[in-house]
Write a structure and sequence with these properties.
- It contains 13 helices and 7 strands.
- By secondary structure, the protein is of the alpha/beta class.
- The protein has a 7-stranded parallel beta sheet, with helices on both faces.
- Helix 5 links the parallel strand 2 and strand 3.
- Bound molecules: guanosine-5'-triphosphate and magnesium ion.
- Guanosine-5'-triphosphate binds next to helix 4.
């Protein structure tokens, strides 16, 4: 096993930080490292927190951190900002209370920006969770900004996803339109000190009434994260959802589904990598592109030709 991984497993913070940077930078060494740390994963429970910008996700994370620590659990936070190329301290680390938490040895906080593509960000988040997991965290909180496809992808990494709304400005209706509804296991109406709280809660409940919710109907929790109100109830809901997943066998199912996706992704990655390396060495695509542009060739037969050229279909073809 590589030194960096054995340092991580023993709880070395610097090893964790370095590994996450390597993941973020898509370092070529990354795969080997992830391979080595995989046997140490599978213990962390992952909670996703998403919702409209400024709804109070970070302040909720802050409150939850305190609550989780008071149970003696070790916790990690990953702040994911699909709209920002910055990482390190970007969305969480600059918050003063977060910095206080950062002094607690059993809390580990890390932000991640896009760097590469959005799809890459979902993968990087998943890999970062594995690092936190092997690092010994019992709970990993993932905060994502915004309500779009990237959040939906990132939510697939979480065991429980909470969607944060506020009473203001018809947030709830907008969010539902964006298709976030399906990923919510728990709705949080934060900033419940502001007017319109009841209306927001009712709207969400009405919407849930019209949906087939299956074995779990997402509860709607009101919180005032600024004052720590409703956090105990929220923590209870999170634990209830976890219990529901565990007892119904759903947790195993969703984790199996996640592994299947990961496996598929890895196979596709290896195949693609191999093919493009060969193509790069053997073929100049410029000519083909030129011919396709001039309509002398079509992209469909050209693709087959490329693969034939590198003998992808084997000698018998
Ligand atoms: N009135 C009120 N304001 C709050 C509450 N919680 C947070 N805020 C304020 O809302 C603003 C945004 O809070 P954050 O916790 O940074 O929200 P966020 O969702 O993490 O924001 P982004 O990460 O930028 O999307 C801050 O100015 C907070 O002080 C609350 O319960 N009530
Ligand atoms: Mg935030």
């Amino acid at each position: 096993m590589q030194q960096l991984v054995s340092d991580l497993v023993q709880g070395n913070r610097r090893a964790a930080a370095r590994l996450i940077s390597q993941i973020e930078n898509d370092d070529p060494e990354k795969r080997e490292l992830l391979k080595d740390l995989y046997p140490y994963t599978g213990n962390a429970y992952v909670i996703g927190i998403t919702g409209v910008p400024g709804s109070g996700k970070s302040s909720l994370v802050d409150c939850l951190l305190q609550r989780i620590r008071s149970d003696g659990l070790k916790v990690g936070v990953i702040g994911v900002d699909p709209t920002s190329p910055f990482s390190g301290g970007a969305i969480l680390g600059d918050r003063i209370r977060m910095q206080e938490h950062a002094l607690d040895q059993d809390i580990f906080i890390r932000s991640m920006g896009t760097r590469g593509s959005l799809g890459g960000l979902a993968r990087a988040t998943r890999e970062a969770v594995q690092v936190f997991d092997a690092f010994g965290k019992d709970i990993v909180l993932i905060e994502t900004v915004g309500v779009g496809q990237s959040e939906v992808d990132i939510a697939k990494t979480a065991d429980t996803t909470m969607v944060v709304l506020t009473p203001a400005g018809g947030d709830s209706v907008q969010t539902i339109k964006a298709g976030i509804m399906e990923i919510a296991d728990i709705f949080v109406v934060n900033k419940s000190d502001l007017p319109g709280k009841e209306k927001a809660v009712t709207e969400i409940n009405l919407m849930l009434d019209m949906k087939e919710t299956g074995g779990w109907r997402p509860p709607v929790q009101s919180t005032v994260s600024m004052r720590g109100e409703g956090i105990e109830e929220l923590w209870n809901s999170l634990n209830e959802h976890r219990r529901y997943l565990e007892e119904s066998g759903r947790l195993q199912e969703i984790r199996k589904e996640r592994v299947r996706r990961e496996l598929t992704e890895q196979v596709e990655y290896l195949v693609k990598d191999r093919i493009w390396n060969q193509v790069k060495d053997q073929i100049s695509l410029d000519n083909l592109v030129e011919n396709i542009v001039l309509r002398r060739k079509d992209p469909y037969s050209a693709a087959t030709e490329v693969l034939e050229e590198i003998n992808f279909f084997g000698g018998g073809q």
